[in-house]
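Chain A, query sequence.
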Amino acid sequence: MVLGVVLAACAAGVDENASGKSGAAPKELRLAIGGESEDGYDPTLGWGRYGSPLFQSTLLARDADLNIVNDLATKHSVSADGLVWTVDIRTDAKFSDGKPVTTDDVAYTFTTAGRSGGLTDVTALAKAVAVDNDTVELHLKRPQSTFVNRLVSLGIVPKHAHGKDYARKPIGSGPFTFVQWDEGQQLIVQRNENYYGTEPVFERVVFTFTSEDASLAAAKAGQASMAAVPSSLAKTTVSGMKVVPVKSVDNRGVMFPYVADTGKKTAEGLPIGNNVTSDKAIRQAINQAVDRQALVDGVLEGFGSPATGPVDGLPWYEPSSAINGNDPSKAKQLLDAAGWRDNGGVREKAGVKAAFTLLYPADDTIRQGLALSVADMVKPIGIQITAKGVSWDVIDKRLHADAVLFGWGSHDPTEMYNLYSSTQAGIEYWNTGYYSNPIVQENLETALSATDQAEATKYWKAAQHDADGNGFGPSADAAWAWLVNLQHTYFVSDCLDIGKPQIEPHGHGWPITAGITGWRWTC
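Chain A, predicted structure.
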Protein backbone atom coordinates (compact mmCIF):
# COMPACT_ATOMS: atom_id res chain seq x y z
CA MET A 1 0.00 0.00 0.00
CA VAL A 2 2.82 2.38 0.86
CA LEU A 3 4.58 1.73 -2.40
CA GLY A 4 1.28 2.45 -4.09
CA VAL A 5 1.29 5.91 -2.53
CA VAL A 6 4.78 6.45 -3.89
CA LEU A 7 3.82 5.30 -7.34
CA ALA A 8 0.75 7.52 -7.39
CA ALA A 9 2.75 10.55 -6.35
CA CYS A 10 5.37 9.95 -9.01
CA ALA A 11 2.79 9.40 -11.68
CA ALA A 12 1.61 12.90 -10.88
CA GLY A 13 5.07 14.21 -11.64
CA VAL A 14 6.01 15.10 -8.05
CA ASP A 15 9.41 13.49 -8.40
CA GLU A 16 9.80 13.26 -12.11
CA ASN A 17 13.50 14.02 -12.01
CA ALA A 18 14.52 11.84 -9.10
CA SER A 19 16.16 9.31 -11.38
CA GLY A 20 18.20 12.05 -13.01
CA LYS A 21 17.02 11.09 -16.48
CA SER A 22 15.16 14.24 -17.45
CA GLY A 23 18.20 16.49 -17.53
CA ALA A 24 17.05 19.06 -14.98
CA ALA A 25 17.80 19.22 -11.27
CA PRO A 26 14.70 18.26 -9.29
CA LYS A 27 13.10 20.60 -6.79
CA GLU A 28 12.08 17.62 -4.72
CA LEU A 29 13.92 14.63 -3.33
CA ARG A 30 12.34 11.35 -2.33
CA LEU A 31 14.17 9.43 0.35
CA ALA A 32 13.22 5.89 1.36
CA ILE A 33 15.54 5.71 4.35
CA GLY A 34 13.19 4.73 7.16
CA GLY A 35 13.57 6.65 10.40
CA GLU A 36 9.92 7.43 11.10
CA SER A 37 9.56 8.55 14.70
CA GLU A 38 6.43 7.04 16.19
CA ASP A 39 6.60 9.58 19.01
CA GLY A 40 6.81 12.54 16.67
CA TYR A 41 9.42 15.24 16.33
CA ASP A 42 9.75 16.96 19.69
CA PRO A 43 13.41 17.19 20.82
CA THR A 44 12.41 17.67 24.46
CA LEU A 45 10.96 14.14 24.32
CA GLY A 46 13.92 12.57 22.56
CA TRP A 47 13.63 13.39 18.86
CA GLY A 48 17.06 14.01 17.33
CA ARG A 49 19.06 12.46 20.17
CA TYR A 50 21.13 10.59 17.59
CA GLY A 51 21.65 13.86 15.67
CA SER A 52 20.09 15.56 12.65
CA PRO A 53 16.76 16.82 14.07
CA LEU A 54 16.25 18.54 10.66
CA PHE A 55 13.34 20.74 11.78
CA GLN A 56 15.22 22.22 14.69
CA SER A 57 18.71 23.64 15.00
CA THR A 58 21.06 22.78 17.84
CA LEU A 59 23.52 24.93 19.74
CA LEU A 60 26.47 22.89 18.48
CA ALA A 61 26.88 20.29 15.75
CA ARG A 62 29.35 17.66 14.55
CA ASP A 63 31.00 18.06 11.17
CA ALA A 64 31.82 15.21 8.77
CA ASP A 65 34.88 14.35 10.86
CA LEU A 66 32.80 14.44 14.08
CA ASN A 67 34.52 17.62 15.26
CA ILE A 68 32.24 19.81 17.36
CA VAL A 69 31.40 23.07 15.60
CA ASN A 70 29.04 25.97 16.25
CA ASP A 71 25.49 25.90 14.96
CA LEU A 72 23.07 28.22 16.77
CA ALA A 73 25.88 29.04 19.22
CA THR A 74 28.66 31.46 18.37
CA LYS A 75 30.83 30.29 21.24
CA HIS A 76 30.65 28.38 24.50
CA SER A 77 32.73 27.96 27.62
CA VAL A 78 32.71 25.87 30.80
CA SER A 79 33.53 27.13 34.29
CA ALA A 80 36.58 25.69 36.03
CA ASP A 81 34.42 23.58 38.33
CA GLY A 82 32.43 22.21 35.38
CA LEU A 83 29.14 23.43 36.80
CA VAL A 84 28.26 26.33 34.50
CA TRP A 85 28.16 26.14 30.72
CA THR A 86 27.90 29.59 29.14
CA VAL A 87 26.67 29.75 25.56
CA ASP A 88 26.46 32.78 23.28
CA ILE A 89 23.93 32.40 20.45
CA ARG A 90 23.54 34.14 17.12
CA THR A 91 20.88 36.85 17.05
CA ASP A 92 19.79 36.51 13.42
CA ALA A 93 18.14 33.09 13.70
CA LYS A 94 14.39 32.77 13.17
CA PHE A 95 11.90 29.98 13.56
CA SER A 96 9.98 28.87 10.51
CA ASP A 97 7.02 30.98 11.66
CA GLY A 98 9.19 34.09 11.34
CA LYS A 99 9.70 34.76 15.05
CA PRO A 100 13.25 35.18 16.37
CA VAL A 101 15.10 32.47 18.27
CA THR A 102 15.88 33.92 21.68
CA THR A 103 17.87 32.94 24.72
CA ASP A 104 14.51 32.42 26.44
CA ASP A 105 13.76 29.71 23.89
CA VAL A 106 17.09 28.03 24.60
CA ALA A 107 16.56 28.16 28.37
CA TYR A 108 12.99 26.92 27.95
CA THR A 109 14.10 24.00 25.77
CA PHE A 110 16.72 22.77 28.23
CA THR A 111 14.44 23.26 31.22
CA THR A 112 11.58 21.42 29.55
CA ALA A 113 13.79 18.55 28.38
CA GLY A 114 15.17 18.22 31.90
CA ARG A 115 11.69 17.95 33.37
CA SER A 116 10.17 15.73 30.69
CA GLY A 117 12.08 12.56 31.52
CA GLY A 118 12.37 11.96 27.77
CA LEU A 119 15.04 9.99 25.99
CA THR A 120 17.37 12.98 25.78
CA ASP A 121 19.09 12.82 29.16
CA VAL A 122 19.26 16.32 30.66
CA THR A 123 18.97 15.16 34.25
CA ALA A 124 22.26 16.84 35.20
CA LEU A 125 20.72 20.28 34.56
CA ALA A 126 19.87 22.33 37.66
CA LYS A 127 18.61 25.41 35.86
CA ALA A 128 18.90 27.27 32.56
CA VAL A 129 19.14 31.06 32.68
CA ALA A 130 18.75 33.56 29.83
CA VAL A 131 21.35 36.13 30.93
CA ASP A 132 20.81 38.64 28.12
CA ASN A 133 19.83 38.77 24.45
CA ASP A 134 22.59 36.46 23.32
CA THR A 135 23.87 34.63 26.42
CA VAL A 136 22.51 31.56 28.17
CA GLU A 137 23.90 29.86 31.25
CA LEU A 138 23.26 26.18 31.85
CA HIS A 139 23.87 25.34 35.51
CA LEU A 140 24.51 21.69 36.32
CA LYS A 141 23.91 19.79 39.54
CA ARG A 142 27.25 18.06 39.07
CA PRO A 143 30.07 18.23 36.53
CA GLN A 144 29.34 16.08 33.49
CA SER A 145 31.91 15.71 30.72
CA THR A 146 29.29 14.38 28.32
CA PHE A 147 27.00 17.39 28.68
CA VAL A 148 28.48 18.84 25.49
CA ASN A 149 26.52 16.16 23.64
CA ARG A 150 23.27 17.71 24.90
CA LEU A 151 24.32 20.93 23.16
CA VAL A 152 24.93 18.88 20.02
CA SER A 153 21.74 16.83 20.03
CA LEU A 154 18.97 18.85 21.72
CA GLY A 155 17.04 20.79 19.09
CA ILE A 156 15.79 24.20 20.22
CA VAL A 157 12.01 24.57 20.30
CA PRO A 158 10.00 27.82 20.34
CA LYS A 159 8.59 28.62 23.76
CA HIS A 160 5.64 30.44 22.18
CA ALA A 161 4.60 27.45 20.04
CA HIS A 162 5.53 24.43 22.13
CA GLY A 163 2.19 22.88 23.00
CA LYS A 164 0.73 19.41 23.23
CA ASP A 165 0.52 19.03 19.44
CA TYR A 166 4.09 20.13 18.84
CA ALA A 167 5.51 16.63 18.30
CA ARG A 168 3.25 16.18 15.30
CA LYS A 169 3.48 19.72 13.94
CA PRO A 170 6.98 20.89 14.84
CA ILE A 171 8.24 24.43 14.34
CA GLY A 172 11.95 25.05 14.44
CA SER A 173 14.89 26.99 13.05
CA GLY A 174 16.51 24.07 11.19
CA PRO A 175 17.05 23.78 7.44
CA PHE A 176 13.63 22.28 6.72
CA THR A 177 10.14 22.90 8.01
CA PHE A 178 7.24 20.54 8.53
CA VAL A 179 4.51 20.27 5.88
CA GLN A 180 2.59 17.01 6.27
CA TRP A 181 2.94 13.66 8.04
CA ASP A 182 0.88 10.68 6.92
CA GLU A 183 1.87 8.29 9.68
CA GLY A 184 3.21 4.99 8.45
CA GLN A 185 3.42 6.30 4.90
CA GLN A 186 5.29 9.53 4.31
CA LEU A 187 6.54 12.81 5.75
CA ILE A 188 6.83 15.92 3.60
CA VAL A 189 9.15 18.77 4.52
CA GLN A 190 10.09 21.94 2.69
CA ARG A 191 13.03 24.26 2.76
CA ASN A 192 12.95 26.75 5.63
CA GLU A 193 13.30 30.11 3.94
CA ASN A 194 14.21 31.66 7.31
CA TYR A 195 17.15 29.29 7.86
CA TYR A 196 20.33 31.14 8.79
CA GLY A 197 22.70 28.46 7.49
CA THR A 198 23.53 27.16 4.04
CA GLU A 199 20.37 27.12 1.94
CA PRO A 200 19.48 23.58 0.84
CA VAL A 201 19.39 23.10 -2.93
CA PHE A 202 16.18 21.09 -2.79
CA GLU A 203 12.90 22.83 -2.02
CA ARG A 204 11.08 19.76 -0.74
CA VAL A 205 12.04 16.40 0.67
CA VAL A 206 9.62 13.50 0.96
CA PHE A 207 10.50 10.69 3.35
CA THR A 208 8.64 7.51 2.42
CA PHE A 209 8.30 4.90 5.13
CA THR A 210 8.57 1.66 3.22
CA SER A 211 9.73 -1.83 4.07
CA GLU A 212 13.23 -2.91 3.05
CA ASP A 213 11.94 -4.67 -0.07
CA ALA A 214 9.63 -1.79 -1.00
CA SER A 215 12.46 0.71 -0.62
CA LEU A 216 14.56 -1.30 -3.04
CA ALA A 217 11.62 -1.58 -5.42
CA ALA A 218 11.14 2.21 -5.32
CA ALA A 219 14.83 2.71 -6.08
CA LYS A 220 14.69 0.29 -9.02
CA ALA A 221 11.63 2.08 -10.39
CA GLY A 222 13.40 5.47 -10.24
CA GLN A 223 10.97 6.69 -7.60
CA ALA A 224 13.50 7.43 -4.87
CA SER A 225 16.74 9.36 -5.03
CA MET A 226 18.03 7.44 -2.05
CA ALA A 227 17.02 4.15 -0.46
CA ALA A 228 18.42 2.55 2.67
CA VAL A 229 18.68 -1.21 2.39
CA PRO A 230 20.14 -3.96 4.58
CA SER A 231 23.55 -5.25 3.58
CA SER A 232 21.96 -8.45 2.28
CA LEU A 233 20.34 -6.38 -0.52
CA ALA A 234 23.21 -3.99 -1.13
CA LYS A 235 24.82 -6.05 -3.89
CA THR A 236 21.72 -5.75 -6.05
CA THR A 237 22.23 -3.82 -9.28
CA VAL A 238 20.02 -0.74 -9.61
CA SER A 239 20.20 1.22 -12.85
CA GLY A 240 21.12 4.87 -12.37
CA MET A 241 22.13 4.37 -8.74
CA LYS A 242 25.27 3.51 -6.84
CA VAL A 243 25.71 1.81 -3.50
CA VAL A 244 27.12 4.15 -0.85
CA PRO A 245 28.33 2.24 2.22
CA VAL A 246 28.70 4.56 5.20
CA LYS A 247 30.90 3.66 8.15
CA SER A 248 29.07 3.63 11.46
CA VAL A 249 29.38 2.91 15.14
CA ASP A 250 26.08 1.09 14.81
CA ASN A 251 27.03 -2.21 16.37
CA ARG A 252 25.51 -5.56 17.22
CA GLY A 253 26.48 -7.68 20.18
CA VAL A 254 25.37 -10.33 22.65
CA MET A 255 24.41 -9.05 26.09
CA PHE A 256 25.04 -11.67 28.76
CA PRO A 257 23.07 -11.77 32.01
CA TYR A 258 25.97 -11.16 34.39
CA VAL A 259 24.58 -12.45 37.67
CA ALA A 260 23.51 -15.97 38.64
CA ASP A 261 19.88 -16.98 38.92
CA THR A 262 19.15 -16.84 42.64
CA GLY A 263 15.42 -16.40 42.25
CA LYS A 264 15.69 -12.64 42.40
CA LYS A 265 13.14 -10.64 40.40
CA THR A 266 12.58 -7.04 39.41
CA ALA A 267 9.87 -4.91 40.99
CA GLU A 268 7.71 -5.89 38.01
CA GLY A 269 8.29 -9.59 38.68
CA LEU A 270 10.72 -10.22 35.82
CA PRO A 271 13.37 -12.90 36.45
CA ILE A 272 17.00 -11.86 36.90
CA GLY A 273 20.11 -13.94 36.28
CA ASN A 274 21.46 -16.91 34.37
CA ASN A 275 23.62 -19.67 35.83
CA VAL A 276 25.59 -20.19 32.62
CA THR A 277 26.35 -16.70 31.33
CA SER A 278 27.16 -15.52 34.85
CA ASP A 279 30.35 -17.61 34.61
CA LYS A 280 33.22 -15.44 33.40
CA ALA A 281 34.87 -18.40 31.62
CA ILE A 282 31.74 -18.92 29.48
CA ARG A 283 31.67 -15.25 28.46
CA GLN A 284 35.39 -15.12 27.74
CA ALA A 285 35.31 -18.40 25.82
CA ILE A 286 32.52 -17.16 23.55
CA ASN A 287 34.45 -13.95 22.92
CA GLN A 288 37.48 -16.07 21.97
CA ALA A 289 35.59 -18.51 19.76
CA VAL A 290 33.54 -16.10 17.67
CA ASP A 291 35.02 -15.38 14.24
CA ARG A 292 33.91 -11.80 13.78
CA GLN A 293 35.41 -11.35 10.34
CA ALA A 294 33.43 -14.37 9.15
CA LEU A 295 30.28 -12.68 10.47
CA VAL A 296 31.12 -9.55 8.51
CA ASP A 297 31.78 -11.53 5.35
CA GLY A 298 28.91 -13.96 5.67
CA VAL A 299 26.09 -12.07 7.36
CA LEU A 300 26.88 -8.47 6.36
CA GLU A 301 28.11 -9.33 2.85
CA GLY A 302 31.32 -7.52 3.71
CA PHE A 303 29.56 -4.24 4.62
CA GLY A 304 30.95 -3.81 8.12
CA SER A 305 33.86 -4.54 10.41
CA PRO A 306 34.53 -6.76 13.44
CA ALA A 307 33.41 -5.18 16.72
CA THR A 308 35.14 -5.65 20.05
CA GLY A 309 33.37 -3.02 22.08
CA PRO A 310 30.57 -0.46 21.97
CA VAL A 311 32.80 2.45 20.89
CA ASP A 312 35.22 0.99 18.34
CA GLY A 313 37.21 3.67 16.54
CA LEU A 314 35.94 6.58 18.62
CA PRO A 315 38.44 8.75 20.53
CA TRP A 316 37.58 7.07 23.85
CA TYR A 317 38.08 3.51 22.56
CA GLU A 318 40.71 1.39 24.36
CA PRO A 319 42.37 -1.03 21.89
CA SER A 320 43.84 -3.27 24.60
CA SER A 321 40.31 -4.25 25.60
CA ALA A 322 39.91 -6.15 22.33
CA ILE A 323 40.49 -9.78 21.45
CA ASN A 324 42.01 -9.81 18.01
CA GLY A 325 40.92 -12.61 15.73
CA ASN A 326 39.48 -15.81 17.21
CA ASP A 327 41.09 -18.74 18.97
CA PRO A 328 38.82 -21.74 19.68
CA SER A 329 41.74 -23.60 21.31
CA LYS A 330 42.15 -20.87 23.88
CA ALA A 331 38.39 -20.86 24.41
CA LYS A 332 38.53 -24.57 25.27
CA GLN A 333 41.43 -23.96 27.64
CA LEU A 334 39.43 -21.32 29.49
CA LEU A 335 36.49 -23.68 29.89
CA ASP A 336 38.71 -26.58 30.98
CA ALA A 337 40.43 -24.42 33.57
CA ALA A 338 37.07 -23.28 34.93
CA GLY A 339 35.84 -26.84 35.38
CA TRP A 340 33.45 -27.07 32.42
CA ARG A 341 33.81 -30.72 31.27
CA ASP A 342 32.63 -32.23 28.02
CA ASN A 343 29.52 -34.37 28.41
CA GLY A 344 28.30 -35.66 25.07
CA GLY A 345 29.23 -32.51 23.14
CA VAL A 346 27.86 -30.00 25.64
CA ARG A 347 30.00 -29.09 28.60
CA GLU A 348 28.75 -29.36 32.12
CA LYS A 349 29.81 -28.03 35.50
CA ALA A 350 28.32 -29.00 38.86
CA GLY A 351 25.24 -30.33 37.13
CA VAL A 352 24.72 -27.20 35.00
CA LYS A 353 24.90 -27.60 31.23
CA ALA A 354 26.73 -24.95 29.21
CA ALA A 355 23.53 -24.13 27.37
CA PHE A 356 21.45 -20.96 27.16
CA THR A 357 19.00 -19.11 24.95
CA LEU A 358 19.94 -16.12 22.78
CA LEU A 359 16.95 -13.93 21.89
CA TYR A 360 16.72 -11.65 18.86
CA PRO A 361 13.84 -9.68 17.29
CA ALA A 362 12.30 -12.07 14.78
CA ASP A 363 11.78 -9.43 12.08
CA ASP A 364 15.46 -8.45 11.93
CA THR A 365 17.26 -10.54 9.33
CA ILE A 366 20.75 -9.33 10.26
CA ARG A 367 20.33 -10.16 13.93
CA GLN A 368 18.89 -13.52 12.98
CA GLY A 369 21.92 -14.29 10.83
CA LEU A 370 24.30 -13.20 13.57
CA ALA A 371 22.53 -15.19 16.28
CA LEU A 372 22.44 -18.41 14.27
CA SER A 373 26.08 -18.01 13.21
CA VAL A 374 27.28 -17.41 16.77
CA ALA A 375 25.43 -20.55 17.88
CA ASP A 376 27.25 -22.54 15.20
CA MET A 377 30.62 -21.01 16.09
CA VAL A 378 30.50 -21.92 19.79
CA LYS A 379 29.14 -25.43 19.31
CA PRO A 380 32.64 -26.95 18.70
CA ILE A 381 33.89 -25.65 22.06
CA GLY A 382 31.02 -27.33 23.89
CA ILE A 383 28.62 -24.44 24.42
CA GLN A 384 25.04 -24.84 23.24
CA ILE A 385 23.23 -21.64 22.27
CA THR A 386 19.59 -21.80 21.19
CA ALA A 387 18.98 -18.78 18.95
CA LYS A 388 15.33 -17.77 19.17
CA GLY A 389 13.51 -15.09 17.19
CA VAL A 390 10.77 -13.46 19.25
CA SER A 391 8.82 -10.22 19.54
CA TRP A 392 10.09 -7.25 21.53
CA ASP A 393 7.30 -7.95 24.00
CA VAL A 394 8.93 -11.29 24.79
CA ILE A 395 12.40 -9.75 24.96
CA ASP A 396 11.09 -7.13 27.37
CA LYS A 397 10.08 -9.91 29.77
CA ARG A 398 13.24 -12.02 29.46
CA LEU A 399 16.05 -9.49 28.97
CA HIS A 400 17.47 -9.90 32.49
CA ALA A 401 17.58 -13.70 32.36
CA ASP A 402 18.33 -14.59 28.72
CA ALA A 403 21.12 -13.38 26.47
CA VAL A 404 19.87 -10.86 23.89
CA LEU A 405 21.32 -9.73 20.58
CA PHE A 406 21.12 -5.95 20.91
CA GLY A 407 22.25 -3.05 18.73
CA TRP A 408 23.68 0.24 19.95
CA GLY A 409 26.05 2.95 18.76
CA SER A 410 26.41 6.65 19.64
CA HIS A 411 28.77 9.58 19.31
CA ASP A 412 28.11 10.17 23.00
CA PRO A 413 30.04 8.11 25.61
CA THR A 414 27.04 8.46 27.91
CA GLU A 415 25.68 5.40 26.13
CA MET A 416 28.73 3.37 27.17
CA TYR A 417 28.23 4.56 30.74
CA ASN A 418 24.59 3.49 30.70
CA LEU A 419 25.35 0.04 29.28
CA TYR A 420 27.89 -0.84 31.96
CA SER A 421 27.08 1.26 35.00
CA SER A 422 25.56 -0.53 37.97
CA THR A 423 23.43 2.59 38.50
CA GLN A 424 21.59 1.73 35.28
CA ALA A 425 21.05 -1.97 36.01
CA GLY A 426 17.55 -3.02 35.02
CA ILE A 427 16.59 0.43 33.72
CA GLU A 428 14.93 0.30 30.30
CA TYR A 429 17.34 -1.27 27.78
CA TRP A 430 20.48 -0.10 29.53
CA ASN A 431 22.40 -2.50 31.78
CA THR A 432 19.88 -5.31 31.38
CA GLY A 433 22.37 -7.99 32.44
CA TYR A 434 22.97 -6.32 35.84
CA TYR A 435 26.70 -6.01 35.18
CA SER A 436 28.62 -4.68 38.17
CA ASN A 437 32.32 -4.16 38.88
CA PRO A 438 33.35 -1.56 41.50
CA ILE A 439 36.62 -0.73 39.74
CA VAL A 440 34.90 -0.24 36.41
CA GLN A 441 32.20 1.80 38.11
CA GLU A 442 34.77 4.10 39.66
CA ASN A 443 36.40 4.68 36.28
CA LEU A 444 33.03 5.35 34.66
CA GLU A 445 32.06 7.84 37.37
CA THR A 446 35.41 9.62 37.18
CA ALA A 447 35.11 9.92 33.41
CA LEU A 448 31.55 11.22 33.63
CA SER A 449 32.35 13.86 36.22
CA ALA A 450 35.63 15.05 34.67
CA THR A 451 35.87 18.74 33.82
CA ASP A 452 38.49 18.12 31.16
CA GLN A 453 37.78 16.04 28.04
CA ALA A 454 41.28 14.54 27.95
CA GLU A 455 40.89 13.42 31.55
CA ALA A 456 37.46 11.97 30.75
CA THR A 457 38.87 10.04 27.81
CA LYS A 458 41.57 8.51 30.01
CA TYR A 459 38.98 7.05 32.37
CA TRP A 460 36.56 6.00 29.61
CA LYS A 461 39.44 3.90 28.29
CA ALA A 462 40.30 2.53 31.73
CA ALA A 463 36.71 1.36 32.18
CA GLN A 464 37.18 -0.87 29.14
CA HIS A 465 40.60 -2.19 30.21
CA ASP A 466 42.97 -0.67 32.75
CA ALA A 467 46.65 -1.23 33.54
CA ASP A 468 45.77 -3.89 36.13
CA GLY A 469 43.67 -5.91 33.69
CA ASN A 470 40.28 -4.77 34.97
CA GLY A 471 37.51 -3.73 32.63
CA PHE A 472 34.20 -4.60 31.06
CA GLY A 473 35.80 -5.45 27.69
CA PRO A 474 36.29 -8.92 26.18
CA SER A 475 39.85 -9.20 27.53
CA ALA A 476 38.59 -8.80 31.13
CA ASP A 477 35.01 -9.26 32.39
CA ALA A 478 33.67 -9.88 28.88
CA ALA A 479 30.26 -8.59 29.93
CA TRP A 480 29.17 -8.64 26.29
CA ALA A 481 30.37 -10.37 23.14
CA TRP A 482 30.38 -7.54 20.63
CA LEU A 483 30.21 -8.90 17.11
CA VAL A 484 30.11 -6.42 14.24
CA ASN A 485 29.97 -2.74 13.36
CA LEU A 486 27.60 -2.19 10.47
CA GLN A 487 28.15 -0.13 7.41
CA HIS A 488 24.86 1.56 6.61
CA THR A 489 24.16 0.90 2.95
CA TYR A 490 22.26 3.28 0.69
CA PHE A 491 21.37 3.24 -2.96
CA VAL A 492 21.95 6.82 -4.12
CA SER A 493 21.11 8.32 -7.49
CA ASP A 494 24.15 8.75 -9.72
CA CYS A 495 23.09 12.40 -9.99
CA LEU A 496 23.00 13.06 -6.24
CA ASP A 497 26.22 14.15 -4.56
CA ILE A 498 25.90 13.76 -0.78
CA GLY A 499 29.47 14.78 0.00
CA LYS A 500 31.39 13.11 2.81
CA PRO A 501 28.98 11.44 5.26
CA GLN A 502 29.67 11.31 8.99
CA ILE A 503 30.49 8.08 10.77
CA GLU A 504 26.88 7.33 11.61
CA PRO A 505 25.41 6.39 15.00
CA HIS A 506 22.71 3.76 15.57
CA GLY A 507 20.07 4.02 12.89
CA HIS A 508 17.22 5.86 14.65
CA GLY A 509 16.25 9.04 12.83
CA TRP A 510 18.02 10.10 9.66
CA PRO A 511 21.77 10.17 10.34
CA ILE A 512 22.51 10.28 6.61
CA THR A 513 20.83 13.71 6.40
CA ALA A 514 23.36 15.35 8.73
CA GLY A 515 24.98 17.02 5.71
CA ILE A 516 21.80 17.55 3.67
CA THR A 517 22.37 21.29 3.25
CA GLY A 518 25.47 20.40 1.23
CA TRP A 519 23.79 17.86 -1.07
CA ARG A 520 23.93 18.74 -4.76
CA TRP A 521 22.40 17.51 -8.02
CA THR A 522 25.11 16.94 -10.61
CA CYS A 523 23.27 15.87 -13.76
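Residues 481 and 506 are 18 Å apart (CA to CA). Confidence is low (pLDDT under 50) at residues 1-22.
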